[in-house]
Amino acid sequence: MLFPFLGALLAAWLVVASYVIWKIRKSQNQLLHTSGKQAIEDVLNKIIKDIQKTNSDIITATKSLNELKLNSQYHLCKTGVVHFNPFGHVAGKQSFVVAILDRLQNGLVINFIYTHEGVRVYTKKIKSGKGQEYDLSAEEKEAVIKAQ
What we know:
single chain, alpha+beta, 2 domains, 5-stranded antiparallel β-sheet, 3 helices, 5 strands
């Protein structure tokens, strides 16, 4: 009575094992067909080399990206403009101040003062949002605030 049960179990196991082997061979044949009939070992070695190169490229790209992020703090990217009248009601708001800053609030302000004789241009260095060598005028401070 035990023998027919074991025979049926063995037959079922053989069917399942045959199916699994057939699926593996089918996958291998597809892989070999797409790889130009190379040996599986050669295909797998190529895949491993490609993965290693990709990982190396990712590491290089990550380093470059981190350097770019660090350096971009120093790019002048913020601007603020304030028009003003330095002489009261005489000439209108033809004079203006431009603040140009980086992400760390360093940069410069350029002051363009319009007079009847011409335009005067002055610059001041900015360090951490404040005048580095000279105090800022109210208009220059306002331009720095607008730039932030």
